[in-house]
Amino acid sequence: MIFGGGGFIGSAIVDRLLLDGHELTIFERPRVEPYRKFLDTEPVKWLTGDLLSTHDVGDAIDGMDIVIHLVSSTLPKSSNDDPIYDVQSNLVGSLQMLNVMVAKKIRKIIFISSGGTVYGRPEYLPIDERHPTAPQVSYGITKLAIEKYLLLFEQMHGIKTTILRVANPFGERQRIETAQGAVSAFLHRALSGQPIEIWGDGTATRDYIYISDVADAFARTVTYEGPQSVFNISSGAGTSLNELVSLLEEILGHTIECRYLSGRSFDVQVSILSNTLAQQEMGWMPKVPLREGIENVVKWMIKTRGK
Amino acid sequence: MIFGGGGFIGSAIVDRLLLDGHELTIFERPRVEPYRKFLDTEPVKWLTGDLLSTHDVGDAIDGMDIVIHLVSSTLPKSSNDDPIYDVQSNLVGSLQMLNVMVAKKIRKIIFISSGGTVYGRPEYLPIDERHPTAPQVSYGITKLAIEKYLLLFEQMHGIKTTILRVANPFGERQRIETAQGAVSAFLHRALSGQPIEIWGDGTATRDYIYISDVADAFARTVTYEGPQSVFNISSGAGTSLNELVSLLEEILGHTIECRYLSGRSFDVQVSILSNTLAQQEMGWMPKVPLREGIENVVKWMIKTRGK
Predict the structure, then answer these.
(1) E strands along B86-135, which residues?
(2) Topology classification of domain A2-170+209-235+272-287
(3) What is the bridge-based pairing of β-strands B205-206 and B239-240?
(4) Do B155 and A266 touch (CB under 8 A)?
(5) Predicted confidence band at B95 (pLDDT cuts at 50, 70, 90)?
(6) N or C end of chain B: which has fewer CB within 10 A?
(7) CATH no., domain B2-170+208-236+272-287
(8) How big is the A-B interface in CB pairs under 8 Å?
C-alpha cells in the first residue's frame, strides 16, 4: 500500500517493487493521472481518495500488510507561509492515518522524511542520524513531529516503523517547482534557453541522490527487520550549485547563463548526509553517479518535451 | 502577559514578577477562580477567554511587551490517549498565538517546556540541553514541536524566544492529579491516611524542583538577553520514589503504606537534568532543598485542608 504512489518518488518505488514481485495498491488524490499504463498482468490497484478522510484511508488499507507513506501537502520553501496548514494537513493527517492503521492492524509502516530539512544548520559533516535536529522550515518541523509519533505508535501499538530521511532526490518525472529539484529546475531552464536563477552566491552545497537509488532503499526497507528505525538516504557527497551548473554545461555542451539572487535566510549553506548506517544495516549503497543520473534526466526531458 | 497565569506554576511566577516590579496581565480560561485577591495597588489585570480564539488572544496581548506561555491542555500521562487533540489544542493553538504575536509585534516570548518528557530515555546523565530528543509521550512531542516553531518564528520574525525545560516541579497549589506531582499526590494521600500507589518498583528516579526556584528562573528569563534559547530548569539531582517516600515519612514522623502497581511502558526510569547552562547564562541556581520544599507543602496542605 503506497500513499502518494503516483508522484516522482512514488512512481519509481512502485516500478521497483513490481520488479521485486510485490502486489501493490496505490492511493492518490482524485484527478492525479497515472504516470504510466499498468498491464493487466501487473498486480497494481490504483485507488483515489482524500487522505484526510479516515473513511477513504480505512477502505484503502483494509487487509494490507505494509504501508509506505510518501504524502506531503507542502513544499519546504513555501511551508513557512502557512505553518498551521502544514500541521493540519501533514501532521494531523498522518495521525489520522496512524489511528486507522492501528485499527486495521497494519504490520509495518515506511515513511519518507526530509534529510534536507530536519537537521537544520550542520554542526558537523557529513550529518549522521544522531546529529541534532533543528529544522529551519515548517516542512522539517512537521516531518520531525511525524517521525516522533511513528516511533511512539511503534512502541504503543507494535507497528514496526522505518523512516528514510532522503537527501535531495533527483531524476525523471521530478516536478520542476519543488525546492529540492535544482537538477530538474536548472535543466528545464537550460534546455529551453532561459537563464538559471540561483539564490545566494552558488556555493550552497547539497547532497543529490538519484531516484533509482532512492527506490532501491525503499525496496530494502520493505524486507528490513533489523533494530534501526531512522536512516539517511543520500549520496554522501556534496555538490555546490556552481559545481552543478558546471556539470550541466559539460553534459549539455554549452554555457548556461546564471542570475544570482540574494540568499534566503532559511537556506542551510551545506547539507551532506552520511549514509553509513543504511550501508551497514540494509546493505544499501548509491549506485548511480550524479553525472549519469543527470544524463538520464536530460534524455527523459528531451524525449518528453512538448508532450 | 502571562497565558495560564492562574495555575500552579503561573501563580508562583505572577507573585514573583510582582515583587520584581513588573506590570502583569493574566489570561485564563473563564471560570478559573483567581488563586488570591489582588490589591488595588498591585498592577495585575485578570482577563478570561479562549486561547484557541485569535480574537480573544489578540485583544489580550495588544500593547504587551513580553508573553509568557504556560498553557497546556493535556497531561503527560493521558496525552497518548488522543494525540490528535494534543496536536490541535496545544500545537495548533500555540501557532495561532504566534501568528497573533507577530501581528501585534510582541518583542519576546518565554515558553514552558517539559524537561521530563522531551528527552525520552537518557543516553547519559545528567541530561543536558544537547541530549537527543526522543519523547515517549505525545505531550513531549507537541512540546518539542512548539519549541521548534518558536525558534523558527524567532528567525523569521525576530521574536526573541526563551524555552525553559522544567524538570518535575513541586510546591504549594500543585494539583494532585498531574503526572509530575508525586510529591503532592503522595502527601495528599499520606495526610489523609490513604496508602500511596507507586507504578513500578519505586526505583523510578526524578528531578524535583521547588516552585519558587522555577519562578526565579522565569524572572531571570524576562531580563535575559544572551544568545541561548533553551534551558533545563532542574535541581540537578535525582530522587527515587522510594527515597521520596522515606523522606516524607521522616518529615511526617510516621510510616506510610505503599502499594506497588505494574510499571507503565512509557515511563522513563531515570530523569535527571543538568542545570549548568542556566547557571552559567542566567546566574540561576536552585535554592530550596527538597526537604525544605516538602515541609512548605505540608504546612500549606494542613492549612488549606477542608477549605
Answers:
(1) 108-114
(2) Rossmann fold (3.40.50)
(3) antiparallel
(4) yes
(5) very high
(6) C
(7) 3.40.50.720
(8) 77
